[in-house]
Amino acid sequence: MSTLQLSVVTPDKTVVSETVEMCICPGVAGEFGVLPNHVSILSALKIGDLRYRVNGKDEHVFISGGFADMNNNVLSVLAESAEKAADIDEARARAAKERAEKRLAEKSDKVDETRANAALQRALVRLQLARS
Ligand code: ATP
Fold this sequence. Notes:
By secondary structure, this protein is an alpha+beta fold. The protein has helices spanning 90-106, 113-131; strands spanning 4-9, 14-20, 22-27, 30-34, 41-54, 57-71, 74-79, 82-84. A hairpin with a 4-residue loop joins β1 and β2.
């Protein structure tokens, strides 16, 4: 079976470095799939679920947005933060969701709404992946 090499890297760590059968990335313009020997691509990613398949089994990784670069059958994903679904701390994500919701409900000039919305979105996707 043909494969591709996937790496998911953040400024602190390598989260995934594996030979995979396919990968589905949360692109800013919608999800897109990357199969072995895919043409070269560079795409911006949004907060979401990055899925990849190894031995017919799907694995899920949270990513906080970033970039995906496919070249010579190597897919490199660079993200500000990323965790495998199994490593997500559900209680922490719940607390982050509550903090973001509280900030957004304040409707004060002191609240950076874009930042609070992004924090809420990260928390919601983490919760969804932690529970799946
Ligand atoms: P928090 O407010 O809880 O820090 P956040 O969305 O602001 O959430 P990030 O800036 O995305 O956090 O990530 C900071 C670091 O903490 C990264 O290394 C990320 O992998 C890790 N991290 C954040 N939330 C979780 C979680 N719920 N479970 C596991 N690791 C997490």
